[in-house]
Design brief:
five-stranded mixed beta sheet; four-stranded antiparallel beta sheet; 11 strands; Beta-Lactamase; binds adenosine-5'-diphosphate
Length: 424
């Protein structure tokens, strides 16, 4: 992080120096000297004008006698021999060009006077800017630039630092690490994405733990029964008993194969969800189609749907899987009566699935959406199941940016599952 801040500051300083040099250079190159309105070029032009004036008079010496002493430029006529100049400069003078010489205190503009061996030397007392002060000012300017950039960068750097620390702790195993989403605009998405990623990983790790715990229990029980059945079968000669043991083994094998299928479906869900695509669909149609398959003589489904289509974006296959699981549970844990109510509230579609069954206690309601969790009431009532249907339904709802919750049903006195999905 320190390297990043330093390199950024260095880059800003180098870039500003380089660009100012470049523009200065371009200005000098492409603007004729006469049009460059720096104090230096203006003085040179003034000196040229004075030279033209003096060269045009018949008696330049008398003009200079009356020259104001306080004038910015002081002309003098000096014999050329008093100014030994290098040949290159002398050639310039012969070509009537202006020559500029600079000392610590003065700046001199030299011109040739026509028809004379004398030179017109115009002296400006305006000393060249003090280079030490100039360097100080330049240094101060860049320090101020760096300080301002640092102030601007500080919240950004602090948040990046927090993000880095959170990532390190998360990597070290603290899966509860989350970031407070701040106000720095360009980091907000990054922080949200980090939290989203952390949440997903935490869920996945929890699922894996639950899955491995449940695997060892759920798989071992039928496997142990099958092994015992096989041993007993080997020792039994009576054909009736043998048939009964074989039937038991077959039932255990069926349970085992259903469990493995359900486990694989659940495990593959993440990958399948990421590969599937959302399409606009009418939730009313989907509900009608899915619930029709449950209508039997032992189950009555009472449908209350809006008259107009309820459009949302989603995957029809997975949404009907979700509904299948809710209706399947209402059938399994209910007493033959189900009510489905679909309404639209604001930007959401709300689907309530009521049943007249055993209901769910508030303690169980907090856990039944976790994989392999089953309420004691369901186990005691000897209803078959692996505790994965609601976990699957919850995942599908979340993937559709929806929510699935449970409460007591006022209408039918059993359980009421509520699914909330965003409308298109
Ligand atoms: P499964 O039904 O296979 O056990 P689910 O994940 O579908 O798994 O349900 C988890 C648990 O939630 C069930 O074991 C049951 O205890 C409880 N449950 C789900 N639906 C209902 C319902 N409609 N009425 C009462 N309890 C329910």
């Amino acid at each position: 992080m320190r390297h990043f801040a330093l390199s950024l500051l260095l880059a800003v300083v180098v870039i500003s120096i380089a660009t100012s040099w470049l523009f200065d250079h371009l200005y000098q190159t492409f603007t004729p000297a006469q049009q460059q309105h720096t104090p230096q070029t203006q003085l040179a032009q003034l000196a040229r004008d004075i030279h033209a004036l003096i060269a045009a008079t018949d008696s330049p010496h008398s003009l200079l006698i009356h020259w104001p002493a306080q004038s910015l430029l002081q002309p003098q006529i000096v014999p050329a021999a008093a100014f030994p100049l290098p040949t290159a400069l002398q050639t310039k003078l012969q070509a009537n060009e202006q020559i500029q010489l600079e000392t610590e205190q003065h700046r001199l503009f030299l011109h040739r006077l026509p028809n004379s061996q004398d030179l017109l030397v115009i002296r400006s007392d305006q000393a060249a800017p003090h280079s030490g002060l100039a360097w100080w000012l330049t240094g101060l300017f860049y320090t101020a630039v760096m300080a301002l950039i640092l102030i601007w960068l500080l919240p950004f750097l602090l948040r990046l630092l927090r993000l880095r620390r959170a990532a390190q702790q998360f990597g070290a195993g603290d899966l509860s690490q989350r970031l407070q989403v701040g106000s720095v605009l360009y980091l907000r998405d990054l922080e949200r994405d980090f939290n989203h990623m952390a949440e997903r990983i935490e869920h996945l790790v929890q699922d894996v733990k639950l899955l491995s715990g449940a695997m060892s229990h759920e798989l071992r029980t039928p496997l142990a029964r099958i092994r015992l059945g096989m041993d007993t079968l080997e020792e039994t000669i009576d054909p009736d008993k043998r048939r009964s043991y074989e039937a038991k083994i077959n039932r255990d094998l069926d349970t085992l194969s259903r469990l493995i299928d359900t486990l694989l479906n659940y495990a593959r869900l993440d990958q399948t969800i990421h590969n599937s695509s959302s399409q606009p669909l009418d939730l009313c149609q989907l509900i009608k189609k899915t619930s029709a398959a449950f209508e039997t003589s032992s189950l009555t489904i009472d449908l209350t749907l809006p008259d107009t289509p309820v459009q949302l974006s989603g995957d029809a296959f997975y949404l009907s899987t979700l509904l299948n699981n809710l209706l399947g549970n209402a059938q399994k844990y209910g007493r033959g009566q189900v009510r489905l109510e679909l309404t639209c509230q604001g930007k959401h579609a709300i689907l309530a699935v009521h049943d007249n069954g055993m209901g769910i206690s508030p303690q169980d309601a907090q856990h039944i959406f976790k994989p392999f969790v089953r309420a004691a009431s369901a186990i005691n009532a000897q209803r078959s199941g692996f505790g994965l249907g609601l976990a699957l339904a919850q995942r599908i709802a979340q993937w559709h940016q929806g929510e699935l919750s449970v409460c007591d049903s006022d209408a039918l006195s059993g359980a009421c599952f509520t699914l909330q999905l965003p409308l298109l």
